[in-house]
């Protein structure tokens, strides 16, 4: 039996942000990231809409990129103190993901993070509901049943999944991503392509997810270069914001594959930004997977192109994204030695990532090591 669990209320397009004023409740806690939402006035606007709707509002800010268990625990404490009946996450995947697990721990204060990993997510909505407002067109956490939290001690990113964590309301307004700097537009946009591609080739793909994912891929190829080159074009931003949510609807049901398994582990180890890691891995993993699925041919037919991996590389180049990990700057990956030291460990952990389960081609830690090595050097995988 398939399942496509998405938020019951998805509002989208310009001015959908104002939908916040229609929520019903008494206390709303806004969960957000660093400073961008504050800087661009979106926090004040959210507060105003909620107060117009009769809410008392508090803000929990400072959720970092690749949110940690510690941050989740701090958010839980803030929630226990304020006792909100709505949690409103505003920002990229990081604050939305963190808000989801803070919410779980607010509802079950005794439960530890390890217990959630091992036993799954208990029934929610005894104390609060969740609204998500994405500011990047990337992760689609506003749609999905997933949350990715980093254990900073072991440098491992853990994806948690449960239909319980699907938001009650998703507000997909293009004014938020309009403010994204170019490199974030590029990286998060390539995350959308990774989601849609992995959903299509997934062993759990179905008619519903194929339809959503193929349209998301078409939108990315048409609109991501435009969003990168014309950041203030709201119409283009809206297309990418919708593409992100549609890819999210696809992968929340079809799940993902080894692009994400590999990205989670190199992200946890070196801090490589999620979308950037996916963008680099995408062409090499597609080359590897194409031997085990005819869905890559289907994507090529639908796009009217001859070679999907080459098209992805061309898109990366257009967005100034490097074609190998070795060429990235600022993560300590320029040096082969550091990479080789942790390669076995990352490969083993990637094999155990839940996203590996639905990859169309079987892997082993040795195979994943081979893929990491090709993506590190930017070498094509031929068989
Ligand atoms: N829940 C899911 O289904 C899912 C799926 C894929 C990835 N993830 C996780 O999501 C996280 C990545 O999220 P992300 O890619 O959205 O980035 P992010 O939330 O980590 O944000 C990246 C940076 O962009 C800034 N930013 C965000 N929106 C902005 C805006 N509109 N204008 C200016 N700056 C802005 C942030 O302040 C931050 O510095 C990772 O931890 C990843 O593992 C979750
Ligand atoms: Zn992703």
Written overview of the protein:
Helix content is 51%, strand content 11%. The mean pLDDT is 97. A hairpin with a 4-residue loop joins strand 6 and strand 7 (156-161). Helix 3 (69-82) packs across helix 4, helix 6 packs parallel to helix 8 and helix 6 runs parallel beside helix 10 (274-289). Strands 1-8-5-4-2-3 form a six-stranded parallel beta sheet, with helices on both faces. The chain is built from 14 helices and eight strands. The chain is of the alpha/beta class and 383 residues long. It has helices at residues 36-39, 42-52, 69-82, 93-107, 113-119, 182-201, 207-229, 234-254, 258-270, 274-289, 295-303, 308-318, 336-352, 365-377, and strands at residues 9-12, 27-32, 56-60, 86-91, 129-134, 146-151, 156-161, 169-172. The protein starts with 8 loop residues before the first strand and ends in a 6-residue tail after the last helix. The structure holds nicotinamide-adenine-dinucleotide (NAD) and zinc ion. Nicotinamide-adenine-dinucleotide (NAD) binds at residues 33-34, 36, 65-66, 91-94, 97, 135-136, 138-141, 144, 146-148, 157, 176-177, 179-181, 184, 188, 191, 274-275.
């Amino acid at each position: 039996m398939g399942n496509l669990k998405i938020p019951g209320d998805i509002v989208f397009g310009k001015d959908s942000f104002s939908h916040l004023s229609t929520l019903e409740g008494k206390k709303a806690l806004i969960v957000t990231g660093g400073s961008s939402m504050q800087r661009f006035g979106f926090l004040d606007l959210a507060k105003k809409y909620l107060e117009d709707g009769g809410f008392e509002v508090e803000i929990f800010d400072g959720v970092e990129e690749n949110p940690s268990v510690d941050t989740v625990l701090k958010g839980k404490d803030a929630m226990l103190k304020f006792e909100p009946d709505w949690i409103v996450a505003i920002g990229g995947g990081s604050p939305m993901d963190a808000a989801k697990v803070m919410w779980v721990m607010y509802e079950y204060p005794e439960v530890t993070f390890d217990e959630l990993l091992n036993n799954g997510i208990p029934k929610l909505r005894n104390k609060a509901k969740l609204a998500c407002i994405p500011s990047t067109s990337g992760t689609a956490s506003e749609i999905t049943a997933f949350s990715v939290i980093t254990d900073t001690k072991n440098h491992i990113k853990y994806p948690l999944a449960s239909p319980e964590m699907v938001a009650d309301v998703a507000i997909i307004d293009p004014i938020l991503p309009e403010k994204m700097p170019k490199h974030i537009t590029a990286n998060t946009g390539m995350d959308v392509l990774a989601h849609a591609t992995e959903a299509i080739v997934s062993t759990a793909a179905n008619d519903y997810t194929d339809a959503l994912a193929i349209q998301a891929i078409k939108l990315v190829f048409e609109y991501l270069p435009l969003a990168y080159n014309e950041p203030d074009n709201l119409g283009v931003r809206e297309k990418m914001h919708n593409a992100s949510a549609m890819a999210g609807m696809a992968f929340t049901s079809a799940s993902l594959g080894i692009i994400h398994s590999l990205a989670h582990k190199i992200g946890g180890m070196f801090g490589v930004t999620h979308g950037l890691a996916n963008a680099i891995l995408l062409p090499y993993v597609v080359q590897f997977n194409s031997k085990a699925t005819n869905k890559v041919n289907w994507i090529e037919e639908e796009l009217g192109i001859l070679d999907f991996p080459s098209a992805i590389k061309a898109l990366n180049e257009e967005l100034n994204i490097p074609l190998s990990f070795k060429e990235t700057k600022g993560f300590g990956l320029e040096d082969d030695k550091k990479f080789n030291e942790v390669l076995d460990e990352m490969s083993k952990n990637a094999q155990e990532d839940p996203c590996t389960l639905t990859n169309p081609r079987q892997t082993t830690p040795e195979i994943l090591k081979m893929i990491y090595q090709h993506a590190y050097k930017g070498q094509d995988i031929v068989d």
